[in-house]
User: What shape does this take?
Amino acid sequence: MAARTSSTRPTALRSAAQIPLRPFGPTQDAQDLRTPRIPLLDPSPVVAGGFTPKAFVGEVVPFSVVAFREGHDLIGVQLRLTAPNGEESLHRLRPRLDGTDRWGAEVALDLQGGWTFGFEAFSDDFATWAHATELKVAAGVDVPVMAALGADLLARAAAEKDRPAPQRKLLSATALELRTAEPDRILALSTDPAVAAVFRERPLTTLRSVTGPRPLLVERTAAGVGAWYEFFPRSEGARRLKDGTVKSGTFRTAARRLPGVAGMGFDVVYLVPIHPIGTSNRKGRNNTLTTEPGDPGSPYAIGSPDGGHDAIHPDLGTAADFRFFVRAARKEGLEVALDLALQASPDHPWVTEHPEWFTTLPDGTIAYAENPPKKYQDIYPLNFDNDPEGIYAEMLRIVQHWVHEGVKIFRVDNPHTKPLQFWEWLIATVNADDPDVIFLAEAFTRPAVMRALAAVGFQQSYSYFTWRNTKAELEEFLSGVAHDTSDYMRPNLFVNTHDILTEYLQFGGRAAYRIRACIAATAAPVYGVYAGYELVENVARPGSEENIDNEKYEYKVRDWEGAERTGDSLAPLLRRLNAIRREHPALRQLRNFATHWSDDDAVLVYSKHLDAVFTATGRPDTVIVVANVDPHSVRETTVHLDTSIWGVVPGEPFEVEDLLTGAVWTWTDHNYVRLDAFDEPVHILRVRERS
Assistant: This one.
């Protein structure tokens, strides 16, 4: 599609840096050299390896590039964006003034699809003249020469036929006055804001350089924003019978839990595998090798005579029941995410139909899964190298089957145990047909592998957040995911999972659960909890980081409403946190995380700010979080804030409101706080807009 050249503001974006659209003109770049006439280096966003950087609809993306030229003449830099609908826009970048020669601008991208962006640098003839004039007039040097140069420059700009008439009139009048003006008036005209604004929108240039267009993929908002809630559908509605056994819940009974999940403000309900479970080597309670009658087995041991990855466990119901569940979730405003675990039980139809898809040992047996010291005798891992064409086609068929059934989000189990090129191919193939499909990588592995999975296409990633608990650890981690890898990797800050119960949660009590939920819900736009978190289920199987009586191997019968009635549930806190996330757009961004300081090594301080141009109300939004990360103590300290981030001069007072308690205080850049881990361990503060 040909680029549009309208000067009207595109509807596909929001930006305070936008200027009227115009062609750039010929450059002085040498075709046989890598360096343009005005160097443009290290453009961002960028992903190593040549992969495409990513954003989500509504995300504020920082675009930047290093640009400079020889000598003292000044330059300007602008960003040219092309939206998926072909609409072009132009944005003037500002220098960071930190000695790095980096120029930047922020743009919120509001249209899903493939964008392109490029940078353009130019000699800023007016700014060069104005700067030199200011210095020389003040020193009484070359004053007539500077006036004549300025008059010629403005007259040249006024002669441009396609420049708006009001601009031409202003520039002609200023040029005429410069030829006869006294030094003080020359200085005033060189710094006239009206004249400067004309040249900011439409600079006068004699040298121009460009970078080639670069791709940027903007995915739907749910790829980067959302609150996830995980549960086992077989436990929702499960009933303990008189003989002590448990009758499985179904999709119909699990649907009764959806209003409660939606009522807490969650956006996504994530289901562990819903497929038939094998009986060979079935695991018993607490991952034992001995099963008792009625033990349901691990849902990750997928496959039985009832079917494989495209089938539904008979205890849960039928395909019609699953569709009922999906419709019920949509009615509550929830999306269903399904676990995609590409592995098989020994009873899976693949084992007999496609034995070549597995690894056969010298004794003729099939190798089962291991993650030393863990062993999964009930699971056979797939071997992607024996029949790549066949296995790739089958995995694609499975995903497309569930997409057809209404699932647009997949939580992928252990993707780092499958070839990276497989994921690049699968995600690209699925998204080419349906760009709304989202994949979350559950890969707790080496940093390079986790980042590579994100680079090749995974829209979200589990992260090390679960194990980052001290102030220093959290500062480093949260700053890193917000600024170092945010061009392609989006962390989903799950506070716990059915596999992970950290020592912090095991021994930190209710306070630890409150602290972690508050940080996860405010530090990143995507976070999640596993059912039972609100009940503070914190007893681990001895010697492990898993819950005792783990739900992977048995049913869990819980009384959600009863716990809330007696005050034993954190559901009210989760409900409030998710409401705060909806009310404050700053919390629905990743890259705006800013660390502040405190005098206590257990008090974490950070903020998230969003300028008015990026909010639906047209008002700025700032949230400050102060968290006592020690769940065993009361902490009193002074916090120190860089208030310039939200436009308050250091030392000036401003009001903050605690969004958890309603308390209001007058703060400055240095403030006393007292955080009681056993009462209110976290402040989530809204900066009130000053009248």
User: Anything to note?
Assistant: The radius of gyration is 30 Å. The longest strand covers residues 113-123. The CA atoms of residues 264 and 572 lie 7 Å apart.
